[in-house]
Amino acid sequence: MLEDTQLVWARDPAEGYIQGRITEIGTKEFEVTPIDRKYPKRTCSYDDIHSSCDGPQDHDDNCELMLLNEATFLDNLKTRYYKDKIYTYVANILIAVNPYREIKEIYAPDTIKKYNGRSLGELPPHVFAIADKAIRDMRVYKLSQSIIVSGESGAGKTESTKYLLKFLCYSHDSAGPIETKILDANPVLEAFGNAKTTRNNNSSRFGKFIEVHYDAKCQVVGGYISHYLLEKSRICTQSAEERNYHVFYMLLAGAPQQLRDKLNLGKPDDYRYLSGCTQYFANAKTEQLIPGSQKSKNHQQKGPLKDPIIDDYQHFHNLDKALGRLGLSDVEKLGIYSLVAAVLHLGNIAFEEIPDDVRGGCQVSEASEHSLTITSGLLGVDQTELRTALVSRVMQSKGGGFKGTVIMVPLKIYEASNARDALAKAIYSRLFDRIVGLINQSIPFQASNFYIGVLDIAGFEYFTVNSFEQFCINYCNEKLQKFFNDNILKNEQELYKREGLNVPEITFTDNQDIIELIEAKSNGIFTLLDEESKLPKPSPSHFTAEVHKSWASHYRLGLPRSSRLKAHRTLRDEEGFLVRHFAGAVCYNTEQFIEKNNDALHASLEGLMQECENPLLRTLFPSGSSTSIRGKLNFISVGSKFKTQLGELMEKLEQNGTNFIRCIKPNSKMIDRQFEGSLALAQLKCSGTISVLELMEHGYPSRVLFADLYNMYKSVLPPELVSLPARTFCEAMFQSLNLSAKDFKFGITKVFFRPGKFVEFDRIMRSDPENMLAIVAKVKKWLIRSRWVKSALGALCVIKLRNRIIYRNKCVLMAQRIARGFLARKQHRPRYQGIGKINKIRTNTLKTIEIANGLKMGRDEIVGGVNDIYRQIDDAIKTIKLTPRITQREIDSMYTVVMANMNKLTVDLNTKLKEQQQADEQERLRKIQEALEAERAAKEAEEHRQREEAENKRLKVEMETRRKHAEAQRLRQEEEDRRAALALQEQLQKEAKDDAKYRQQLEQERRDHELALRLASESNGQVEDSPPVIRNGINDASPMGSNKLISFSQVVSNIASRYLNKSDNVRAQQQALGKQKYDLSKWKYSELRDAINTSCDIELLEACRQEFHRRLKVYHAWKAKNRKRTTMDENERAPRSVMEAAFKQPPTVQPIQQIVTAQHRYFRIPFMRANAPDNTKRGLWYAHFDGQWIARQMELHADKPPILLVAGTDDMQMCELSLEETGLTRKRGAEILEHEFNREWERNGGKAYKNLGVRPNGPHPAAAGMQKQQ
Ligand SMILES: Nc1ncnc2c1ncn2[C@@H]1O[C@H](COP(=O)(O)OP(=O)(O)O)[C@@H](O)[C@H]1O
Ligand SMILES: [Mg+2]
After folding, report:
1. Which intervals hold domain Myosin motor (predicted)?
2. Cα 524 vs. chain centroid, distance in angstroms?
């Protein structure tokens, strides 16, 4: 706890820290009353208060501070600064505070000599000490070295670099010609690369790494300068109070008249590119030397700018000489000056709109024609060509026209101005590259062994508006910071190792994630920027959005509105991004990122420069390098160029030994003797020096050589202690003072303290004499005790030795015992283990037998196999038991044999088991299958039966309707017939009468004829040879008419019809036939038969069939008439009922169309045989009609075999009536279904019926039957 009297440092916004005392303790903060009454009281949080040492501190190395914190550190710097001790160390890092004034003798040649070859720390801190350390490390470690000088603008980097180079070049003897050249490089570089800014009158606007190369003897052999990121925007515009590069003013102020005329030079305010500030730097003397006509109005009013080391007039002459020393001729120098002047004149070319131009182009303004002339003269280009190249752009057409056609696109005013500025930037920056090249040429080296490189590059930067330049430089600083962290940490840890401190590895926050954010290959900010540039229409807002999108959740990247600065918070999300750098968050405005990332000239300007007549300029624009040739997609951006350069630099730094110089700017006014604490503190933080200090806090930051510590206190020590050697003294002191072992560590040469512990030690040492006496007493006691302890330890060691010998003896015995046991086990282990293993097989066989018992087949085989194995096991065990020296291999082979047999048996068993299982399974499956099959069949049959039943039912119903319909028709027909019959009857009766009369006459005539014949024979007289013919009574209109003869068939027919008493029917039929198409009455029987067999005419065929059956009928009628009465029944071709029905049946004529729709119908009629015995009387008659005619018929009698008849074979015995005639269709219950008929037919031995329907091509089977009959 801090006490009231304790001095502390409290945070102050201006001073950094001020000293005071704690006067109040709050819950979260303390109240501090400053010692200096001019500061008010304040309350500060714990973190902003640090303890303070008593009295002023002044240490060369901040690590020597007893209290290690940023406040004491800052105080140490400040104290020393006011004592003109501008250099301080933090470990090996040199802190250099810019004095802004010349400190006497500090860089004098004598000082150089003084520092030459002296160890770091031997002399007060100095930039020379660092340079010397680098040389010595190079020599000792045979390793190139780098010195990294960093700090913000105006902190003194460039000056420090100059002193370093001076030391490097002068340290051995005096500088030779090469060294002089290396030193001469500086004024040249500064003339072209430095400018006045608000922060530094001589601000370097580029970074550089100057290498001084040495040979094996460490003699300087040459040098090489690499440069980075020249600020190009400054060439065309500068902020207020800032100037363009020095060389422009130097030329205007110092060029002799002759040169001025050649270059057409005026005064600074004549040039637009010098508008930021037009004053020269001059001292009283040179101010006089510059004629008034060369000074701007502003200069004349305000007088010259003043700086101790800058003088434009003087420096022009210095530059001219330095260029000469670098080996440039007057002509070459003139070439350089011409280009510098050309840039100035180029800047004065202005543009104006072309009146009445519709294409929006512009032209060089009237007023700047003169500048155009001068510029083209200086550049060595044709004035018209320059004019055209400035106001238009060349484009090669892609589509339309001939590919590659060149088109001149006119530029708008602002585009032309941009092109002009781009040209100026390109000329100047390439000139700068050339100058650096020239310097390098002048300090060449064939071979070098090592080099010392000094890096002077801008430190971390942040402004209100930060653009691409800040982004690049801060990226560079991130890389350097990472390098610094890695390096310092490594060195520190190496020291701990060297001193044997055994300190655990110290880790620290890494800034690798920021570096990744910027340079990652896939989506780093540089990559995103390059990708944006390759788009057809790149836009800053799209680029910014991409950055935010790619790194949305990255801690190190934020939106501008997350900035703590109000000015940044006004930026919209797509206008910028915030990067949390190691030194603090910086908000970047992305508006010009894309433009600044691309330094390409447009093609026409580039081409013009390549072909100019100015030899220097032409070499600056070698052909083939143009971006317009490489194309937009292949351009190398400024960012990626810088990234590559930096990568190479880092590689070099990593391979070298490193030394750091951190430059601190004490105030922003660039004045001496003013130390702004907070400004310095901020720089210390940014440079990472405070982090190193923090790092030290975890380690042992305070360290003193034993000898130094001893010397420090020698004067206050009593004689008893003074006589001790330094190391023993230190040991005795630390042990006896009861300092905690955690707080210090003894190294090999030094004692290291934890932060603040050194001061504790110091306080004790310097306490009052009484206390000192007590300490001395304690030390003496400690000394006696430690010596006694040492001798006691010696005795103990001897005893321990003896005990150890006894113990070892015991151990040897034990070792022997164990070895013997081991050997015996080794020999017999395979035997007993083998027996065990083999016996195990026997156990396994039990299971095998158990399983085998479950087998239905092959059980005995397995059991037999098991018994064999038992035998083998017994034999094997017996062999092992009887052979003590049996080898492992033999046992194993026996085991393997038994095991193989066992395995074979098991395989057998398994196969059998599997087979049995398979058989069982198959049987089970088969049964299931059968059951399923049966079930399915039953179901199908049932379904079939039901379907059939339903179908039968439907057909029966249909049949019944048909029958009823036919019946009704018949009744109607009968009625009609009856009436017709009555009429006919009457007529017939009359005819019959006539006929009888006629017959009587005929009889008379016949008799007359016979008589006449008899008479003639008697008298030989002649008589008509034919008897009187019987006239056809039916057709004869008049009985007494013509003597028409009737044929035999007609006779038959007549007789039959009479017999059948059906003359009316026949007549009707004949009438119908007469109406038919074909009159077949005259056809012969054989002709009918042929027609049935061969005709394709369906109608004819049917007509033939009808006629055929009609004739058959007549034949049967005739036959019936001539039959023996006794056998009548047997010869019936259909049941009597059918025949009778036919008799009753009035003749009907089948309409022709019925033929086509002819169908098969089936009937069943019971009949009775009148003359059969009772039990056999009954029978069944089956008929199958194919259309109108019978196809099959069958009689079933109880007493005799069934009679099966088929049309075509048995026609003569079959029913000759047409279906209509039979009247079967009208008989209730007579019709049956096809399958009913077929079932009965087949049951009685009938053959399956072939459909005999009317076939257009093919003989009717009836025809065949007819043939047979004949
Ligand atoms: N060691 C020094 N002694 C005297 N003046 C110095 C010293 N270092 C820097 N200065 C002054 O500070 C100015 C800026 O220093 P410079 O090295 O150019 O800064 P930086 O390169 O860091 O921007 C110099 O012009 C000089 O006036
Ligand atoms: Mg500088």
Report:
1. 57-766
2. 19
| Residue spans of alpha helices (H) in 40-143 | 70-82, 109-115, 127-141
Whether the per-residue pLDDT at 1128 is higher than 70: the answer is: no
Q: Which of 138, 125, 225, 130 is nearest to 183 (CA)?
A: 225
Distance of CA 692 to CAs 15, 346, 495, 614, Å?
Answer: 22, 50, 15, 54
> Is the minimum distance from the CB of 186 to ligand 1 under 6 angstroms?
no
User: Nearest CA to 631 among 597, 586, 600, 666?
Assistant: 600
Secondary structure, 3-state, 841-901: HHHHHHHHHHHHHCCCCCHHHHHHHHHHHHHHHHHHHHHHHHCCCCCHHHHHHHHHHHHHH
Q: Are 250 and 316 in contact (CB under 8 A)?
A: yes
Give 682 Cα–ligand 1 centroid separation in angstroms. Answer: 19
Determine the 3-state secondary structure of 88 from DSSP: strand
Work out the number of other CB atoms within 10 angstroms of the CB of residue 161: 22
Q: Is 161 in the pocket of ligand 1 (CB under 6 A)?
A: no
Among 131, 120, 144, 116, CA closest to 452: 144
C-alpha 106 to ligand 1 mean position (Å): 14
- Confirm if 412 and 335 have CB atoms less than 8 A apart: no
- The residue whose two tokens read 């690369």 is 193
Each residue's pLDDT tens digit, 253-301: 999 999 999 999 999 999 999 999 999 999 999 999 999 999 999 999 9
- Which residues belong to the annotated binding site for ATP? 151-158
Distance 485 CA to ligand 1 centre (A): 26
Nearest residue (CA) to ligand 1, atom 9: 156
Separation between Cα atoms, residue 845 and residue 607, nearest integer Å: 100
Contact 137, 657 (CB under 8 A): yes
The preferred substitution site among 130, 200, 227, 670 for testing ligand 1, maximizing ligand atoms within 8 Å of CB, is: 200
Strand order in the sheet with 744-746: 702-705, 750-753, 744-746
- Measured from the Cα of 663, ligand 1's closest atom is 22
What does the block give as tokens for 144?
A: 């190139």
* 70-74-76 Cα angle (round to 5): 120
Sequence-distant (6+) residues with CB within 8 A of 187 are: 315, 318, 319, 322
Cα 1031 to Cα 1040: distance, rounded to the nearest angstrom? 9
Cα–Cα distance measured from residue 458 to residue 208, given in angstroms and rounded to the nearest whole number: 9
456: left (phi over 0), alpha (psi -120 to 50) or beta: beta
Return the pLDDT at 332. Answer: 94
204 touches ligand 1 (CB under 6 Å): yes
Pairing of the two strands 1203-1206 and 1189-1197: antiparallel
Contact residues for 860 (Cβ-Cβ < 8 A; gap 6+): none
Distance from C-alpha of 517 to C-alpha of 556, rounded to nearest angstrom: 8
**pLDDT 10s digits, 1198-1208:** 888 888 888 77
Distance 663 CA to ligand 1 centre (A): 9
pTM to 2 decimals?
A: 0.61
**Cα–Cα distance between 1127 and 1134 in angstroms, integer?**
14
Rounded-to-integer distance, Cα 616 and Cα 434, Å: 9
Residue 123 three-state SS: coil
Ligand 1, atom 8, residue with closest C-alpha: 156
Given a contact cutoff of 8 angstroms between Cβ atoms, the answer to whether 229 and 642 are in contact is: yes
Query: Do 285 and 254 touch, CB atoms closer than 8 A?
Result: no
Q: How many residues does the chain have?
A: 1270
From the CA of 206, which ligand is nearest? Answer: 2
Mean predicted confidence (pLDDT) in 247-251:
97
Q: Nearest ligand to the C-alpha of residue 156?
A: 1
Nearest alpha carbon, ligand 1 atom 26: 100
Q: Which ligand is nearest to the CA of 153?
A: 1
- CB-based burial of residue 911 (10 Å sphere; 0-12 exposed, 13-18 middle, 19+ buried)? exposed
Please report where in the chains the tokens 């282990």 appear, as a residue: 829
